[in-house]
Write a structure and sequence with these properties.
By secondary structure, this protein is mainly α. 76% of the residues lie in helices and 0% in strands. The two termini are 18 Å apart.
C-alpha cells in the first residue's frame, strides 16, 4: 500500500477509526463474554475497555430511530470515504476492509442464530465468543 504514497500519522489515525464499526458488531454478537466476565471479576478491565471503545459508535447508531443508524453509517462511509478519490488510498482501503469485516461478523451471527438449537447454549455461546475474538483479532 505504500507504493501510492507514504501514510502519515494523521492517515493512520483516520484509517483506524472505521475499525470501531466491526468492533461494535463483534461486541454485540459476542455478548456471551460478558457472562464470563460476570463470573470472573479479574476479566472486568477487558469488558470495560471494550465498552469504552464502542461507546462513540453506540451514540452514532442511536441517533437514528428504527435501527437506521447502521445503514446510514455504512452508506456514509462507503460513499463519502471509500468512493472518494480525494481521500488517501490508505484511509479508503482501511474503511472498505472494516466494512467487509463487519459483513463477515454479521453473516456469522445470522448463521449462528439460524442454526442454534435449544439446549446447546454452551456450544452457541462458544461460537459467538469465537466471532467476538475473531473480530477483535481482525480489528486489532
Amino acid at each position: 500500500m505504500t507504493w501510492r504514497s507514504t501514510p502519515e500519522t494523521s492517515d493512520k489515525i483516520l484509517g483506524s477509526l472505521p475499525y470501531l464499526l466491526p468492533l461494535f458488531r463483534a461486541v454485540l454478537v459476542g455478548g456471551a463474554i460478558f457472562k464470563l466476565i460476570a463470573n470472573f471479576p479479574v476479566l472486568a478491565p477487558i469488558g470495560e475497555v471494550l465498552l469504552l471503545l464502542i461507546t462513540p459508535v453506540m451514540f452514532v447508531y442511536g441517533l437514528l430511530p428504527f435501527g437506521l443508524g447502521d445503514i446510514a453509517v455504512f452508506f456514509a462511509i462507503f460513499f463519502l470515504v471509500v468512493r472518494n478519490p480525494n481521500i488517501s488510498h490508505f484511509i479508503r482501503f482501511n474503511a472498505l476492509q472494516a466494512i467487509l469485516i463487519g459483513f463477515i461478523i454479521s453473516i456469522g451471527s445470522l448463521l449462528l442464530s439460524v442454526v442454534s438449537l435449544p439446549g446447546l447454549e454452551l456450544v452457541t455461546d462458544t461460537f459467538y465468543n469465537m466471532l467476538l475474538f475473531g473480530g477483535v483479532a481482525a480489528v486489532g
